[in-house]
Each structure stands twice: as structure tokens, then as C-alpha cells.
Amino acid sequence: MNWESVSRSVPLKTLTTLKAGGEAELFAKATSTPELVEIAAACQLEGVKVTPLGWGSNFLPSDSGVKGLVLVNQTRAIQIDGDVVIADSGVAFQDLWLKSTQAGLVGLEFAVGIPGTVGGALVSNAGAYRSNISEFLIELEIVQDGKADWVDPSWMEFRYRDSVLRCESPRSAVIARTRFRLPKGDAKKSYDEAREYQRQRIGKQPPSASAGSFFKNVIDAKLASEIEGLSDGMRKNNVVPAGFLIEQCGMKGFRLGGAMIGKKHANFLLNVAGATAAELRSLAEYAKCEVKAKFEVDLEEEVMYIGDWTNFQPISP
User: Fold this and answer.
1) pLDDT tens-digit readout, 120-149
2) In the CATH scheme, what is the code of domain 78-188?
3) Of 105, 120, 271, 311, which has the fewest CB atoms closer than 10 Å, so is most exposed?
4) Would you say domain 6-73 falls under CATH 3.30.43.10?
5) Which one from 57, 161, 163, 166 is the annotated catalytic residue?
6) Residue ranges matching CATH 3.30.465.10 in the chain
7) pLDDT score, position 139
8) Is the pLDDT of residue 204 over 70?
9) pLDDT band at 203 (very low <50, low <70, confident <90, very high)
């Protein structure tokens, strides 16, 4: 690896959808899988922490910056062989649906409108409408300890909107490529279903800078059976939407500095006026406290906080 090609002190604001945060200590881009593997492996062998970044749609970097190397993943290759789709981890999640549907494969309609890459979707086990990306994964190539290997999906330890790469002390690994098996189906029906999902999302999602859904929905059978205002489908599946709980606390449109809870959808935290990362996280903490006080449940972030947050102190509303 040519370390001279690595940049230093690169601002991350323009590389995340929340448009906040500090600088990357070291910074590089990979446009092919071999390049991604080379950079990730070299960093691992040198003991340099690697933070992969796709569209930056599920990250909030600290205002203090991110130590180690932020590696922007711009790999884009997709191959289809029968019912198996091989995709680079930097492929847009929506493009994975489009290419597979064009090949007569279905199942990923829920991906339309979910921002980010295939790799990022796997890290958070992205999904919607009672489907998850992990359902279709049959193998993935990861870079760990300086080398690349194909591993079984069990390596990821998938859970609801979670995986081993999201835990408090995640494995030092980078996803390079993926293999999915998808069922054959009716392309027109797939397009129609995806179009309806997109229509629903457009009606809920605000235009301001955001990370999409900020919190995971709550899976709680007791709360789902007792709380008023839930749909029958939500109640049946023991799901209580995080945005519903925040809205019930009267927080739609609540603002802290340049950060605001969405007026359309309360599970969107918006950067409406040059918010700092500290303001956005403080607003998230306040929403969590209000929901805890009213419903005695703990909201858990979908968004990942990266970088140095050791000195973070929530700003009081």
C-alpha cells in the first residue's frame, strides 16, 4: 500500500448525511475490491483502526474527530449467476434491488428508499416492512487480521437492526464482497411493490439533513398490547415504532440548537441549522430520557456514534 496516498485531517461533514462532526485523522478511498482489501489489510497489520464509510447515512462522527483511517468505500461491481448475486460492499443498496430485479430476482423491494451501501446495510441488518437484508445473505468476504476470507453469515451474529460489527467493541474487520440468493419472481410486481414503498417513504421523510430512522423500533409484547393508537399489524408483531413513542412525548418539532426532531416523523433527527454532533446526540439523549420516563422503555440508536466521544456531555434543552 502507498501510504503517501493517504490524506490527513479530512473534514467528515460533507461525507455524512447528518452533515455534522469533526475530521478524520487519516483518510483514503477505495474504488475496487482489491484496493479495499489492500488498504484494510495494510492498516490492520500496522495496528491502524479502520472505519469504513459508504454513504455516511448511519453515522454521526464526534466533533472531536475520528482516530485512525476513515476508508470511503466506492466499490460498485455486481455479478449475477442464476439466483446468486455477488455484490461489492460499496454497491448502493437500492442498486442491488434494481440489478437483481432486472435479472428476474425478487425479495429486495424494501431496499428502495433506504440510503446507504450493501456493506452498511449488513452492519445494521437493514430492513423494512418485516424484511431484513440478512435473510438473503449466503456468504460474505471480510478482511480481518490482514487477510481476506469468505465466511458464513453466522459470523455476523445478526439480530434486529444489529450485528457483531455494531457492538460496543466490534471486531476489527471490513466487509469486502457479498453473496445473496434471491427467489425468482415477477419483475413488474417487484417494481410496483417498490414504488409503493417509495411513495410511503416520501410522505414521511423530511428534506433536511438526517440519517433516516435514528432509533430502532421497540420490540415489546406487553407495551404493544397496552399502548393506544398502534395499528393491528404493529400490535400483532409486538412492534412499537420509536417515532410513535417520541411523538407521544410531545416532541415533534422540538429543537436544540441546530438540531430538531422531525415535524413529519419523530424518529428523524434533523440538522436544520448547522448543528454540531454534540447538539444532535444531546437531542437524541433527551428524547431517550423522555420516552424512558413516560413508557419505561429504553430507545436504542440505529445511528452509530463514531470517533472520540469520551468528553461528551449532553447539552441541556
Assistant:
1) 999 999 877 778 899 999 999 999 999 999
2) 3.30.465.10
3) 311
4) yes
5) 161
6) 78-188
7) 98
8) no
9) low
Q: Does the active-site annotation cover 157?
A: no
The CATH number for 206-306, chosen from 3.90.78.10, 3.40.50.10380, 1.10.10.10, 3.40.50.970, is: 3.90.78.10
- Classify residue 73 as exposed, middle or buried by CB count within 10 Å of its CB (0-12, 13-18, 19+): buried
Tell me if residue 213 is catalytic. Answer: yes
pLDDT at res. 206: 63
Q: Which residue out of 62, 163, 190, 213 is catalytically annotated?
A: 213
Q: Is the pLDDT of residue 205 over 90?
A: no
Query: 140 with 134: CB under 8 angstroms?
Result: no
Question: What is the arithmetic mean of pLDDT over 175-180?
Answer: 98
The H-assigned helical ranges of 25-135 are 33-46, 93-102, 118-123
User: 134 catalytic, yes or no?
Assistant: no
